């Protein structure tokens, strides 16, 4: 992940704190009650702002000449980038497709994508994806009765 | 894959999922949504009912808990589900409050009522050390004291039991905002506050108070029901206590999203009525002290309309109403 | 209450089968990131419909004890806590595993869990009515101070820069404010999304911050084919025994703190682990070793989270008020079985209550052999090729996160917090205080707001009850004692010089 200097992260946290504080001012007051919904987020925003500024100041005092944002070494290795991207893709694909395709089809697709991106050969990937999807289905849907998304393949099951 | 291929693949996939389902309803498992957590009262009613509906329809009925946001998440899911009859929900009294509180945009008109299955009367519970010995005395004390002297807990402001009590207070000429609500997540933390001396009363159903009554920590001054409850013969009704009939509490009923085919609703209504009348369900509800009330789809619809109107008025009095 | 009848009730073949099956289920659920002990209990609810009361409750008791221990296993192996209760010491355990001390740390987890579990059970059996009465004296004022003491632990669980620790804690508190406000029901930071009205799910956050963030880190080194760390050989249990003997005081202290936190409604195993770890560090002779793979805090916290399980049954059985999220489910199951918790349950259904106690003891005894099997099996996980292991964990994390609330939405939370957690750890912000903030955030706000409402805004009410006043004094001592100690030392130096 990105390397951010303490100056950068301090300023980012301070801005977040200021934003949270400002937004909390727009919350309505609670009638007849001494503290409303804005009090606690306002307090949190205030503390984040102060701590962010303190972090930024201490970073300036140390005079370390780091760049504010730097790309770490792994981003230059294609295999690493692919693996990280595959994890993001796996979660996104599952979230987007599972309601339409059903659990088994989505799980097979997502696991295959992951295994291929991690450098497993395609035939091994397909086999492992099939096995893992079935195991997950049996564990969650059959044994634990978790209502996994229903779709293409589930329709064909008895 | 080129664009045309991609589109046709997507079309095939979608066609596979959107097949008409009414052919012979029900032909696959039904999901029963519950807006509250596993192990709670609504969950128990849903599971007991699901077991019996399963027997009637011959297809599995899976209870799914979609909790959070004071029930609004589960209720929203019930309304936004595919209107194919394969997703139904056990709605609770809160369904008719979200619109007024501004929490959600939907009203009772966005659901298809199937059947009302339960009404639980609220009770007026105070600490066993309380100086109040009957409801009349409590109401007089609340009326005479300055606003904010007395406090109640056991729910979020505007939840079923709070509205039930507020209605009673209003009918007695007491401004219901005189009693401050200390919010809590359910009856149990409310009783904790009651026992530790933090609040003066907890409106809840009698079964919820049973353990604390048995432990000598809590006494119940009246139940907002038409008749005394078999399991609690010592607790008088409001009519017996102050000479005025008053019935209020919370309810549970099966609903489906708006737009479900009428045939599916008819099948469900018949199955639910038979399930409700089964010995197993009747025994289960009586043993646990749940109130047994049944209304069919049409009556439940009228009931919901009345609830919607009544809640709007009481929430207006409480200052909880966010829209006209 | 007749323990002989109770033992007969438990040692029926069918009941024993149910208990053994729930034990295996608990070990599985606990060691899977995303499946917590509470969820295991919830998953058992439909099955308990068809059981007698003793196997029904026994299944939940056994399964939760196993799950809380098993949550330590993926923590030590992969730096992914299996349940929220293991989150406090996951960094410590993982570093020991990297040094080849996997058997040692896991056997300490196992033995301390059994000790804590039995201690909690004994207090439950012998002092339940008395302790429950004390717990009833806790109102929102007492909870407020308790929650602040809990938050103070954040400075002790984050090893590095204190400012960054506080920032991380407050980011967690901020996340906890998402959702409907407790007093007015006003939606805060929900951006118009109904799903966010329920707040950020703790389990989804945990999977994101620990599991997915760790998967990202491991993915960046995927092509390096790192060989598995060579492990210290030898009898597993013996390694643990030596540690427990050395730190027996810690095991006892963790057990006491865990049981007491379990008894208090609203605080359970999740919080017990954090507090005990922090207390251990605060009073350690070698606090500088904490955060470098030091076993001491692990002893305290492992005993503590299992001890809290028994404690939680105290108010649940005596008053029907759940001590944690698991007993909230247990009360529901008891009611379905026609058993209403309350003092009368001890007389009217004394045999069943005694049988539940027997199951508790039994659960903590069979924890040791079954736990050993689990540890042996788990050690093999590290020999699986990372290119296959990581995708499997990704899939379990996704399905686990979905299964908690049956919500696709939670996957977006997992992804977002996975990226945020990775970014934070990469830049010296420990995510541990953030999780603590998320765990305690709602209690802090609710207890404060409720207290203000009850006292009509009068702050004196926060300290003028005996327990509240004492807790306030403890809180102030925690923050002021380092300053006072420093002042005394400098004066002593001045007089000596």
From TrEMBL, chain A:
Keywords assigned: Membrane, Transmembrane, Transmembrane helix
The reply to whether Transmembrane figures as a keyword in the UniProt entry is yes
**Entry superkingdom:** Bacteria
Presence of the UniProt keyword Metal-binding in the record? no
Positions of transmembrane segments: 38-60, 81-97, 103-123, 130-148
List the Pfam families hit by this protein, alphabetically: TctB
Pinpoint the DUF1468 domain residues: 9-149
Name of the protein this chain belongs to: Putative tricarboxylic transport membrane protein
Taxonomy of the source species = Bacteria, Pseudomonadati, Pseudomonadota, Alphaproteobacteria, Hyphomicrobiales
From TrEMBL, chain B:
Entry-linked Pfam families: TctC
Q: Give UniProt keywords alphabetically.
A: Receptor, Signal
Signal peptide per UniProt: 1-23
Q: Which CDD domains match?
A: PBP2_Bug_TTT
- InterPro entries, sorted: BUG, Bug_dom1
Family statement? Belongs to the UPF0065 (bug) family.
Q: What PANTHER family does the record tag this protein with?
A: BLR1237 PROTEIN (PTHR42928:SF5), TRICARBOXYLATE-BINDING PROTEIN (PTHR42928)
Q: What is the name of this protein?
A: ABC transporter substrate-binding protein
UniProtKB/TrEMBL annotation, chain C:
Keywords in alphabetical order, please: Membrane, Transmembrane, Transmembrane helix
- Record-given protein name: C4-dicarboxylate ABC transporter permease
Q: Which residues cross the membrane?
A: 56-78, 105-128, 140-159, 166-184, 196-216, 352-375, 387-420, 467-485
Query: Which positions fall inside the DUF112 domain?
Result: 16-436
Q: Which organism is it from?
A: Devosia limi DSM 17137
Under the heading Pfam families, the entry gives:
TctA
InterPro entries reported in the protein's UniProt record: DUF112_TM (IPR002823)
